[in-house]
Amino acid sequence: MSSSSSAADFVHVLRERGFLHQCSDPDANLAGLTGAALDGAPGGALTAYVGFDATADSLHVGHLLSIMALRWLQKTGNRPIVLIGGGTTRIGDPSFRDTSRPMLDDARISSNAAGLGRVFGQYLDFGEGAADARMVDNADWLDRLDHVPFLRDIGRHFTVNRMLSFDSVKQRLEREQPLTFLEFNYMILQAYDFLELARRHGCLLQMGGSDQWGNIVNGIELARRVEGRQLFGLTTPLLTTASGTKMGKTAGGAVWLNADARSPFDFWQFWRNTEDADVGRFLRLFTELPLGEIARLERLQGAEINEAKIVLATEATRLCHGPAEADRAAAAARGLSGAGGGGNGHAGDGLPQTRLSRAEHPGGLPLVDALVATGLSPSKGAARRLIREGGARLDGEPVSDEAAIVTVAEATLSAGRKRHARLILVP
Q1: What ranges make up the beta strands (E) of 69-133?
Q2: How does pLDDT run across 191-206, given as a tens digit for each residue?
Q3: What does pLDDT average to over the chain?
Q4: Domain 263-338: CATH class, spelled out
Q5: Which CATH number does 7-236 carry?
Q6: Fewer CB within 10 Å, N or C, the chain?
Q7: Locate the Tyrosine--tRNA ligase SYY-like C-terminal domain: which residues (predicted)?
Q8: Where are the domains positioned within the chain?
Q9: Rounded distance between C-alpha atoms, residue 149 and residue 162, angstroms
Q10: Is 152 helix (H, G, I), strand (E, B) or coil?
Q11: Do 18 and 285 touch, CB atoms closer than 8 A?
């Protein structure tokens, strides 16, 4: 990954590509941030972080704005820190949730953290150099805190009055949903994380989604009160599609970033199915294409907009899964399109595969069960409706018989024209 510039260049990229939502600097011009970076590091380099709790073993598309912000930070010659919440995961961020997060044991948290590491390894270069990314676990300091000294030295800077004013807290209370004392402490620990990263790594900036604004401001104010430190914060916008749905939510669930949670082909298809009105915005946010090329692509009209969607899908998949997987996914999609659903014998090569034992299904597998097994339908009832409505295909051919059986050793199954999977019955 190349790097060349400074904090000012990073801020410029965020502005022109649409990443900036809220900023702690007066008038949102970030002059204080770039000035502090220029004064504090050779070449005006900036150290910034985003925190991620290890509640699952993969991140999803909803996290991509923050991940891409970290990537641009590094590409402009600055240093990103990925903070894994090994400590805070034990509590759970209550922000805009209706219920408490399930409690995870240490082994599960450690396993999840390893999965998150695989995601970041695709987007960032880690090492010990000046602009190399660092991965840090807040359990390193939170696990060592003494409760009474922490309350005396840190807790006294937080008032319950102000904590109750946060939208994430007010919503839980207004709905008469329980908010535990454990969760109530989360915002204090996140604020302390920012202070600790400033002390240990010279970190000046915390970034996050718009729902994290209150927690970020808490850290800025804590550093000022405890040490007179000036820190900064910015958030990325909450993304919704042109039709108003939350970015990354699909009928099949979250769009995960790890290949073992969602195949590169399905990831590619998610971007290929972007609404026309979102193509330009998503190209700016989720690819590294030059803005001039993006401007050309978003001017395409009618059927030509599909060219831009294919570019978006391939570029986003390249960043997440690598060039080889992106090319395979694009080729598989071309094969399905050109062969009426995969009947050429090669179109399924890049598709997500489900392998089942032929010995357990000696007479073949009912198509209804096959659609469920491959994840193309969430239930047998949904699979039957899909067949009745003409949306199910077997090797490119529509199937209208709910009692149909898949007897061949390998088959490409389709749900509609955009979702496909490969079923393999092994000996």
Answers
A1: 79-84
A2: 999 999 999 999 999 9
A3: 86
A4: mainly alpha
A5: 3.40.50.620
A6: C
A7: 349-410
A8: 7-236, 263-338, 350-426
A9: 22
A10: helix
A11: yes
Is beta strand 353-357 parallel, antiparallel or unpaired with respect to 419-426? parallel
Distance of CA 174 to the CA centre of its chain: 30
Q: In Å, how far are 27, 95, 232 from 223, measured between CA atoms? A: 21, 22, 10
pLDDT at 128 over 90: no
* 309 labeled part of a ligand binding site: no
φ, ψ of residue 231 to 5 degrees: the values are -120, 170
Binding site annotation covers 192?
A: no
CATH of the structural domain 350-426, one choice from 3.40.190.10, 3.90.180.10, 3.10.290.10, 3.40.50.800: 3.10.290.10
State both tokens at 96.
């805009």
Report the chain's C-alpha Rg in angstroms. 24
Torsion of CA 311, 317, 318, 323, to 10 degrees: -100
Closest by alpha carbon to 412, among 388, 427, 393? 393
143 close to 110: Cβ distance less than 8 angstroms:
no
pLDDT digits (tens, 9 = 90+) for 278-309: 999 999 999 999 999 999 999 999 889 999 99
Q: pTM of the prediction?
A: 0.80
Same fold, 7-236 and 263-338: no
Q: Is 49 annotated as a binding residue?
A: yes
Is 190 annotated as belonging to a binding site?
yes
CB 45 within 8 A of CB 132: no
Q: According to the model, what pLDDT value does residue 216 have?
A: 94
